[in-house]
Design goal:
Elements lengths: L8 H11 L5 E5 L3 E5 L1 H7 L3 H4 L2 E2 H6 L4 E2 L11 H7 L4 E8 L5 E14 L2 E11 L1
Antiparallel strand pairs: 1-2, 1-7, 2-3, 4-5, 5-6, 6-7
Length: 131
């Protein structure tokens, strides 16, 4: 059994913020581990966070077979969450995803890095927009 590591206060506050929103939002830590998503995300993906638990964000996202709606003419096929982690900048893109109930949905995803201080990267927040 994996031992949970302590969460940075910024991640705890981001989770609390997400809990109070009707906007679909997830939070991942600096290692790329999904640490929370709110009930509004559950409606999109068809699975509660309690069922999913903490898991690598890329694995979780890949399970929904995300396909870009608008191909990037520059050829960058990275997801906004990957850009937020690797480049530590905000990114936005539209996707088709397949939820666990077999329904294909169109969403847009905006991801941005979380910093506790100017030089202290602590994770990523992603917001889903239903289209």
């Amino acid at each position: 059994m994996a031992v949970a590591r302590p969460k940075h206060l910024t991640l705890i506050l981001a989770r609390e913020f997400a809990t109070s929103l009707a906007t679909p939002m997830l939070v991942a830590d600096d290692l790329g581990i999904l640490v929370f998503y709110n009930e509004a995300v559950e409606e999109i993906v068809g699975r509660s966070f309690e069922e999913t638990g903490e898991t690598p964000l890329d694995d979780w996202m890949e399970s929904f077979d995300p396909r870009p709606i608008d191909p990037d003419p520059m050829g960058d096929e990275r997801r906004p969450t990957q850009i937020a982690f690797q480049d530590q900048r905000a990114s936005h893109r539209r996707f088709r995803v397949m939820s666990v109930d077999g329904v294909e949905r169109q969403i847009a995803l905006t991801a941005f890095p979380l910093f506790a201080h100017a030089d202290e990267f602590v994770g990523v927040v992603a917001i889903f927009w239903r289209e």
